[in-house]
Amino acid sequence: METSLASAPMLRPSTWPDALQSRAEHPDAAPICGGTDLMVDINFGRSRPAALLDLTSVEGLDSWELIDDGSTVRVGAGVSFTTIVEELSHLCPALAQAARTVGSPQIRNRGTVAGNLATASPAGDAHPALLACWAQVEVESLRRPRLIEIDDFFVGPKSSALASDELIRAVRVPAATGPQQFAKVGPRNAMVIATASFALNLDVAGRRVGTGIGSAGPTPLRARQAEQMLEETLIDRWDSPGAVADDVIRRFGALAGEAASPIDDVRGSAEYRRHALAVLARRCLSWTLADLPGASARQVARS
Amino acid sequence: MTVTDTATRSSASAAADGVGVSAPRPDGVPKVDGSFVYSSDEYHDGSLWGVTLRSPHPRARILAIDTSQAAGVDGVRCVLTHEDVPGSKLFGMNTYDQPVLAFDEVRYQGEPVAVVAATHPEIARRACELIVVDYEELVPVTNPEIALSGQVEGLPQGGLVRHVRIRHGDVDEARATAEVTVKGRYEMGTQDPAFLGPESGLAVPLGDGGVELYVSTQDLHRDQRQVADCLDLPLDRVRLVLSGVGGAFGGKEDLNVHIHACMLALSTGRPVRMVYGREESFFGHVHRHPAIADVELGATRSGRLVFTRVRLVLDGGAYTSTSQVVIANGCYFAAGAYDVDNVEIDGYATYTNNPPCGAMRGFGAVQSCYAIESAMDRLAAALGMHPLELRMRNAISEGDLLPTGQPVDGPAPVQEILSYLRDLPLPADSDHTTGDMRARPGGVGNVTRGEGIRRGVGYALGMKAIGFSGGKDDTCTARVTVWIRDGEPVAEVHCAAPEIGQGVVTLQAQIVRTELGVRTVELRDSDTDIAESGASSASRQSWMTAGAVVGACALVRDEILERAAAVLGSPAAGLSLDGTEIHDCDGRPVLSVAELLGPESVSHAYTYSHRVTEPVDPERGQGDAHIAFAYAAHRATVDVDVDLGLVRVVEMATAQDVGTAMNPLAVEGQIEGGTVQGLGLAVMEELQFSDGRIVNPSFTDYLIPTMLDVPPMPMKIFEFPHPDSPYGLNGVGEPPNLSSTPAILNALRDATGLELPRAPVRPSDLVIELGGRANRRASARPLQA
Predict the structure, then answer these.
(1) pLDDT category, B772, cuts 50, 70, 90?
(2) Which of A258, B116, B381, B604 maximizes the CB count within 10 A of its CB?
């Protein structure tokens, strides 16, 4: 007992095939990269993994690349939030803005989007932006690689579609074709877990509206009705939206609030969360509309 | 104790790194580069790890404890329960009522029940889980008003720790003459000291059956007495040494690992380390008392206070700790820093099954300052008067009688403090549409580009006593030794004063340089080998330690000059000392100290006492209870997003009288730190409970301000020398913690027009569309330009 207690085995593969092999052979081993979730759980006694599968030495995980003729950003599982802030703020503005709100500089240096996904907390900062951008999660096991649509990834509180022998290899995020926003409410001005968060993506090329809601339901959510309503409003105006009526913006906020299914907890009440989401959605919409080519200047000043 | 006169002081100030200079901290660089040894870093070859098993229930009867399985685990060296406590099974700051290890009944969640020593902390933790405690759960009493009702059973003293009554003048009569009265109820949640260095220490068993304990604490000798009593050892077999303290704020006055680590060390014959985990730490120390305060103020139409009436309830939790003193201190200053002839104050500290509350920076006066300063703004609104003008019209001054009947003595420059805040230009409006999002409410959350933002400005004034009050007269002893090393004089100071971040180590060296002129000053560890220093609490340690070190230096100087006089054959009275040389009456060097002392040393201890105080009487609360008073005020400027309820404090302007700034940089640090701790209490810091259980025992959900929540703090440090203290210094650490919180609350009220009767304010309280959780204010008057 003593040896196993004092030092859980540490598996340290250096290649991706070895990592998959270790994952298959040690299903009880907890994958660790940034460790910003897992180490907290271990320190608090909430998690005692039989072993750790350290992915930090696996070659090729800590870089990003453009694929699909430059239309998609493939973010390796080991890419830190700091790298996303520094290098992807033009290609993935909502994700980069979300990355800015993650923890402290030290945590952003360690933490990764893939780790955020693997933890699958409803409060994970990256999730609303990934939803709004229709990201895909690239996962792999010895059995096969597969792509999981972000809408199919979150299956419950801290529970995902990732199988016990699978590892996340990368996240594919379509590059922005129009304005995006991410906003997050918490009772502190930095280093805070979201009480509620919202991401919005105006996909000008695809004529689509993407949204994501964080911390206001058992999983990250999409505000489908809000998306549909706005797509209908913009249907023939994507290239010259002009001024969008106030009641459209208000309706969009209300639909975003209604899409949530929040609870009362230590971080805030359900009522506050729903209200805050509506405010965030309104504001994100007015900012993105103002950034559309051909927007009316009036849009900028309104809340 | 003779006060060093002004002439001495001004020449003293010239000494390099002497008094009045921002001498660098000796522990500054080591704390930054990581080489500083905190109590959690203490290490000894072959040491075991101690871990505590705590009650999961806020209230339960203990029917049985079975440790057999845990004791059988490989690597476990011992498992101890209440049956193994050698001496007193109870300990406490003033009243021994808290079990070393629980027996019969646990009274709060997290109460220690058993301790385990093992070769590895994880083994000890898992062995703890194998201890079987058979509990019969009982319904916890968690509401202090219910505890006070006398209707519940099972609480000590019927639920009442202490009722403090203060009667000054005649409130009933005065009420008839008041032209305007206001009433308000103000509540405050539970603040945690939230120090970053968790409770920790190392106990080493000694050959003589005694024990040595390296521990972070605020008072080595009070700890030593409790540890010795519980171990059933004479005091001289229990030696305490101060280890690096990573923050305290009052939360390290009560014992934590002390007795447990010593018991485990004595039982196993091995050194034992204990370090509380981050979550465990929230259960391992006392918190600031949550408060309910009812305040009624009466005034003339011109804004002169006619009467003040306060009922203050502080929930002390499961055990007494310092509650009986905290409630007294809260009551002494419940009428604020105002001259008012008729005052009625009733304060109650209660027992409940919430975690114990005790000392925390401000010591009861934080709660009462928040209440009276909130009520003063309400009165200003009712009078249609600027809140600062109302305060200036009623500010206390030297010679005024406190509600306890004691005349205010020492400098009371409240008008000067408030005038500074009045005359300081307000910060410029922020441009939120462009500019840095970190300057906006919500910060990096990117929630606003100016939408919903309203600005507010609020003021508050605070006053509290410095040093121990009410007949608890204390002393501080220091020894100063001078000898020659490599031809140069070296001074060593030995004092038990705990360095808890305030800079008392820096100060001791500054004083020796000033008094003796010796450049090289070394500090021995603070330990119990010397007589007591008293606690680093009540903003008293600089005053008390300075008195002791100045006194010891004077004795050393006198002996050196006597010796020189004997050698030179001239009277000592004509000689002086500048560190390396003895000078004659014309200032000429006539003998070197190195030559004089040779291989000998000169060493003297001195015990400093402050003036005598008396307890207040139980009926009317009258008595000369205090040695000194300190004053500070804040002007808070806030931006509030009233759609989301988020706050950015834009500026915290403050002014404080510190008597003499012994180390100006350290003074600024104390004022900034106290202000920020008050900011936390205003807008985010709260331990939340559900049926006596803490629901946010982590820094994930117990939020303290980050650098992005901290605003610029323009400050004015007044130096009106105190006539009774060494160098004229006054206590600095607590006053900035008093007025910070209510200044922000008043600014938020100004911005939103909401009553905001509870601190800390949560976002949902500030959302105007949701109606806040509060009512609208009657008439919030816009501030004048």
Answers:
(1) low
(2) B116
